[in-house]
Amino acid sequence: MVTTTDKSSDRTLRKVLMANGWFSIISGAVAAGLSAPLADYMEIPFAVLVLVGLGVVAFGVLTLINVRRELLDRPQAIATTLADVTWVIGAVGILAAFPGSMSSEGKVLLAGVSAVVALFAISQAAVLRRSPGRVS
């Protein structure tokens, strides 16, 4: 039996995942499509932005596919959340371990994107924690 709380959690999770998916598609497309000027701005290799951008677009598409399903796939929502956490940890690691690896502007840009990704991860985890079992 699906309760009102379950339906509310489902709607909330779908909204957060949808925002995450579109943010990923748009930011990934910008990174890949504007990789030459962004690479100069961030002082990182062009190919890095192309590859990361295309990977982020693919992640966004897979996230939106899950959102469009009649029954939201809980393990996939958890995997999305873990991928977001991994992004944030990786970004913090890059900024801490390789302080000279990019321009100050690039660091601010990476930190800003990572802050948004962290908000998605926190929001998704909070909803998933409130709604044990399969989200419908």
Describe the model:
There is one protein chain. The protein has 5 helices and no strands. It has helices at residues 4-33, 35-42, 46-68, 74-97, 104-130. It is elongated and about 45 Å long.
Q: How would you summarize this macromolecular structure in one to three sentences?
A:
Helix content is 82%, strand content 0%. It has 136 residues and is mainly alpha-helical.
SSE class: mainly alpha
The main pleated sheet reads as: none
**Number of discrete helical segments:** 5
- Which strand-content bin applies to the residues? under 5%
The tally of beta strands, per DSSP, is 0
- Overall pLDDT metric: 92
Instruction: Compute the CA-based radius of gyration.
Output: 16 Å
Fraction of residues in helix: over 70%
Report the span from N to C terminus: 10 Å
Return the string of H and E elements.
HHHHH
Shape: elongated
Question: What are the low-pLDDT stretches, counting only 5+ consecutive residues below 50?
Answer: 1-5
